[in-house]
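Re: weekly structure request thread

Next one in the queue (100 aa):
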Amino acid sequence: MKNSLLKKIDEVARKYQETKEKRYKDEWYKLIKKFSDENEDKFFQDLDSTKCFKNAIRKKAFTAKEVKDNTNYIMYMCSNSQYDWFKAKRTKKSYKVERI
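Done, posted below.
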C-alpha cells in the first residue's frame, strides 16, 4: 500500500508540473497528508528545513548552487530520526542525507 501511495503522489506531482492545474495541486496535498497520517510515527516535516539543507550541503550531498537552480532546484521532502530526504525538481534525483 505504501509504495502504491508514493507512486500516486509522484504521478500527481508530475501532472501538476506539466499542467499547473489547481486540482492536481490539491490532490497532491491530500495524498501527502494521507501518507503523513499513515506514517506519522516514522516520518515528519522538519520545521527548520534550512538546517536540513545546510547539513546536506556540508555533507556534500549537493551544492548551494544546485539548491537555487531555477531549472532543477532541490526540494526538501521529509525526515525521520536518521535521515532527511530531498528531490531535484526536473531530474527527480533523490537524496538521502544522514541527519546531524
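The mean pLDDT is 87. DSSP finds four helices and three strands in the chain.
Next request, please.
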